[in-house]
């Protein structure tokens, strides 16, 4: 009997010890990747030009400055020629002639996929393309039931968030595959990271679910070709999309997010949460029961919708 007791205690302690080791090594790895791991030398590793879509505001704009500070030349892709010129001017002012820029004006919501692809094939010809960031994105103006979303908003979300990333990747992959190196980053969203349902922003969250699965699957197809493909997941970031004017630890500025983002480019994880407070949020969210998360998120956005409608009725 005593021998049996001892065996059980030994076995349970052993399992406890293994679990503890797993937690400790997981934590050490997290500290390493979040705070200590140096960013890759993207220029040497992949090539001297980076393409960033939606680079005229928010995360995309902050990212082009990060990439320029690492010595990459920039292909700036956006829909507004004046904002594109302002971004190019700001880069020239900060980095002088060390960083070359080229501008590509394309409104993804009004351009067919094949046209996007053809345009990109034309502009990248002869350039040593190392990095592509599919960042351009649009969301709803506020929490909205699916049947109320304007058809042009649904169309625009699908075209900008889904089609543009797909067709631009289609133009760039053969070029990267030919030289056997390259990095592609798709900017996903905490609205779909596998943690939550996202009612009242359904089409937006679904578009990000597409990007996550697209990145995950295509990254396996091209791993042996030397192309590192990744979906990066931001939670809230203070930009014109979220309309959060103030930043905080959990709602960073676009600059803080983009710095974290750059540190992850080219590292193995196909889907990652690069900014450490967001990573903590995702850890906690994964622990909570789905039914509780679904209820809380729905109530939160219903409240937001009520406040938005109240504000609209006051303005009328
Ligand atoms: N901010 C967040 O909390 C958050 C959270 C999760 C994921 N994200 C994702 O992060 C990415 C960047 O978001 P953000 O917050 O930086 O948004 P943002 O400040 O609104 O910037 C979006 C960028 O996309 C461009 N864009 C929009 N529609 C376009 C179109 N039809 N054709 C070409 N370019 C277009 C915008 O151009 P203009 O300058 O002309 O408007 C702008 O440069 C998006 O994919 C978004 O879904 C953001």
TrEMBL record:
SUPFAM superfamilies per record: NAD(P)-binding Rossmann-fold domains
Family: Belongs to the short-chain dehydrogenases/reductases (SDR) family.
Keywords: Membrane, NADP, Oxidoreductase, Transmembrane, Transmembrane helix
Any Pfam family matching the protein: adh_short
Keyword Magnesium set for record: no
Coiled-coil residue windows: none
GO CC annotation, single: endoplasmic reticulum
GO molecular function: ketoreductase activity
Protein name as catalogued: Steroid dehydrogenase
PANTHER family listed in its UniProt record: ENOYL-(ACYL CARRIER) REDUCTASE (PTHR43899:SF25), RH59310P (PTHR43899)
InterPro entries: NAD(P)-bd_dom_sf, Sc_DH/Rdtase_CS, SDR_fam, VLCFA-Steroid_DH
Stretches that traverse the bilayer: 6-32
Compartment(s) of residence: Endoplasmic reticulum
Record flagged with keyword Oxidoreductase: yes
């Amino acid at each position: 009997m005593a021998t049996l007791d001892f065996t059980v205690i030994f076995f349970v302690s052993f399992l406890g010890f293994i679990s503890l080791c797993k937690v400790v090594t997981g934590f050490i790895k997290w500290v390493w990747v979040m705070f200590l791991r140096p960013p890759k030398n993207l220029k040497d590793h992949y090539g001297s030009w980076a393409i960033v879509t939606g680079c005229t505001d928010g995360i995309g704009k902050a990212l082009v400055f990060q990439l320029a500070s690492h010595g990459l030349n920039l292909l700036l892709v956006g829909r507004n020629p004046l904002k594109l010129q302002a971004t190019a001017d700001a880069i020239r002012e900060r980095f002088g002639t060390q960083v070359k820029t080229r501008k590509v004006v394309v409104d993804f919501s009004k351009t067919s996929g094949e046209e996007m692809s053809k345009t990109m094939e034309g502009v990248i010809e002869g350039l040593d393309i190392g990095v592509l960031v599919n960042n351009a994105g649009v969301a709803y103006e506020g929490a909205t039931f699916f049947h109320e979303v304007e058809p042009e908003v649904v169309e625009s979300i699908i075209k900008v968030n889904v089609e543009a990333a797909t067709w631009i990747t289609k133009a760039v992959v053969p070029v990267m595959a030919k030289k056997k190196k390259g990095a592609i980053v798709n900017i996903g969203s905490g609205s779909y990271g596998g943690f939550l349902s996202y009612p009242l922003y359904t089409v937006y969250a679904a578009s990000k679910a597409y990007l996550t699965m697209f990145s995950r699957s295509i990254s396996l197809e091209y791993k042996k070709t030397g192309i590192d493909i990744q979906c990066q997941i931001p939670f809230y970031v203070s930009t014109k999309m979220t309309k959060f004017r103030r930043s905080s630890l959990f709602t960073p500025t676009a600059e803080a997010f983009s710095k974290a983002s750059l540190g992850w480019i080219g590292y193995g994880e196909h889907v990652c949460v690069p900014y450490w407070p967001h990573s903590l949020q995702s850890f906690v969210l994964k622990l909570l029961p789905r039914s509780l998360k679904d209820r809380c998120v729905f109530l939160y956005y219903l409240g937001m919708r009520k406040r938005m409608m109240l504000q609209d009725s006051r303005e009328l």
